[in-house]
Amino acid sequence: MGKYLRQRILQIVPVLILITFIVFFLVYMAGDPVSLMLPEDATPEDIENLREALKLNEPVPVQFGYFLLNLVQGDFGQSFRYAQPALPIVMERLPATLILALTSMVVAVLIAIPAGIISAVKRNTFLDMFVTGFSILGKAMPNFWLGIMLMLVFGVMLQVLPVSGNETWRHLVLPSITLGTAVSAEMTRLIRSSMLEILQQDYIRTAKSKGVQPFTLIMKHGFKNSLVPVITILFLQISTLVSGALVTEVVFSYPGLGQLLVQAVNGRDMAIVQAAVFVVAIMVIFLNLIADILYRIFDPRIKYN
């Protein structure tokens, strides 16, 4: 286990280098940022001085070298919109997005686990068809459409929940349901299929013949042993929620990383774009590493060579 973890941590280094390479060239191909950073009445001399200060007159490999050097120091450049370093701005918005992602995952788990178990236990019944239909519908609904419908019903018609901001826990309810619904649909189908496979195993039939209580049989012997694929989708969906929350944050005017990234792309504030993409990429990498560790905890049969 320790050797495997050391190998995985060493593998993170080339992955991060590849990510920085992709981020740099995506931003490089987006165009010259100098025209956006200076006013319209800027003189050619002002433009040339700024290009020189930003090292934009250097060859591309040299620019990439400067980018890596600054990256090691945590410097992604200055945001021309906020006139501040980009990374602190991203880190300031990150907690709001993490809170939204975690609450959305709680919503998804509270829906998916009981729905998936019931669907598997009541296979080919009305309940199974209802849950399956719900999961298909939840997966098919676009986030922005569901968010708008929730705003219309609970914010405008019933006026019981706020539709923008993040001042209190009530501001998290509608965005969390919007994000959590699609994730719960995916998890429900996975839990159902995993539980169906486990319930066909010989040790389940043996435990049933020995008179094990149905709840114990399902939860302790069935659901516990079906957790490995569930953990996989759970951690992959957490990273998806963090990176995919931008649409929901824009719909609900939620001041998180997603809304910041959309504004930065629209305004071509490339320092913010670079910092945000890099932070999200690091989070995805380490979430996958945590998932690998949890595999071994929940299923000791898994061996790492």
Q: Can you give a write-up of this model?
A:
It holds the Pfam family BPD_transp_1_N. It is a multi-pass membrane protein. It is a single chain. Helix 1 runs antiparallel to helix 13, helix 5 crosses helix 11 and helix 7 crosses helix 8. The protein contains 13 helices and 2 strands. The chain is mainly alpha-helical. The termini are close together. The model has no long low-confidence stretch (mean pLDDT 79). A hairpin with a 4-residue loop joins strand 1 and strand 2. A two-stranded antiparallel ribbon has the order 1-2. It has 2 domains: 85 residues, no CATH class; 211 residues, MetI-like (MetI-like fold), CATH 1.10.3720. Helices cover 77% and strands 1% of the residues.
Radius of gyration: 24 Å
Quick check: average pLDDT? 79
How much β-strand is present in the residues?
under 5%
- Between the first and last Cα atoms, what is the distance in angstroms? 8 Å
The overall number of domains is 2
In CATH, the homologous superfamily of the largest domain goes by the name: MetI-like
CATH topology term of the largest domain = MetI-like fold
Multimeric state of these chains? Answer: single chain
Task: Write down the overall geometry.
Answer: flat
Could you list the spans in which at least 5 consecutive residues all have pLDDT below 50? Answer: none
CATH class of the largest domain: Mainly Alpha
Major sheet description: 2 strands, antiparallel
Strand order of the largest sheet: 1-2
Count of alpha/pi helices = 13
**CATH level-two architecture of the largest domain:** Orthogonal Bundle
Number of strands: 2
- What is the SS-derived class? mainly alpha
